[in-house]
Design brief:
Number of domains: 1
Radius of gyration: 21 Å
Mean pLDDT: 91
Shape: elongated
Low-confidence stretches: 2-15
CATH class: Mainly Beta
CATH topology: Porin
Largest sheet: 8 strands, antiparallel, barrel
Number of helices: 1
Number of strands: 10
Strand order of the largest sheet: 1-4-5-6-7-8-9-10
Oligomer: single chain
Strand content: over 45%
CATH architecture: Beta Barrel
Helix content: under 10%
Length: 193
């Protein structure tokens, strides 16, 4: 009898829809020029990586946690001084994801909050070697579409926006006191389990 119950429980477990997925993605990072406090900040665009984990609460909603990584250069201009920082950007965030299911196409919207860490890399591309790491809380928003290529895999294309205070690396001369919108287009693949 116990063996029959175990077999039925196993069969029921396999019949359940997958409720979790992990994804690895290639992302672009683009920021606008920022002007404030008589300072002009000009970042370069770059590529980076994004890892995500989603847990499905219902067939149309999920919770997501993310980690992203990218490196790029930023230049700061004032009337008196110019500075350059080679920057490592990391994001640790959580978001609510809402799905709209249409057969193999699954459009989605997401919104959340996260910590964005800007770390200056002390090498020849950084002109202020006493610069410090800047960490801020920011808002995450976005949307995209997931195309299911099999029950276990899908391909995702999405746009993510990160709204965060512009970094200044504890160099008071370069503090803009403004917010920036970091645009992050993403292409990746997800595994459902």
């Amino acid at each position: 009898m116990l063996l029959c119950v175990l077999l039925l429980m196993t069969a029921a477990g396999f019949a359940q829809e997958s409720r979790q997925d992990v994804s690895l993605s290639l992302m672009g990072v683009t920021q606008p020029q920022v002007f404030g406090n008589a300072v002009q900040q000009t970042p370069t665009s770059t590529l980076g990586g994004l890892a995500s984990y989603r847990y499905m609460l219902t067939p149309s909603s999920a919770l997501e946690v993310n980690y992203s990584f990218a490196q790029y250069s930023e230049k700061y201009y004032t009337t008196a001084i110019t500075g350059r920082f080679y920057t490592r950007q990391q994001e640790i965030s959580a978001a609510y994801v809402r799905y709209f299911n249409f057969k193999n196409f699954n459009p989605f919207l997401e919104a959340g909050i996260g910590g964005i860490i800007f770390t200056p890399i002390n090498d020849f591309r950084t002109t202020f070697l006493d610069a410090k790491q800047t960490t801020d809380i920011g808002a995450i928003y976005g949307g995209g579409i997931a195309y299911e290529i099999s029950p276990s895999f899908d391909v995702r294309v999405e746009y993510r926006g990160l709204v965060v205070k512009s970094p200044y690396f504890n160099v008071g001369t370069f503090k803009t006191n403004t917010y920036t919108n970091i645009s992050v287009p993403v292409l990746g693949i997800a595994y459902h389990f």
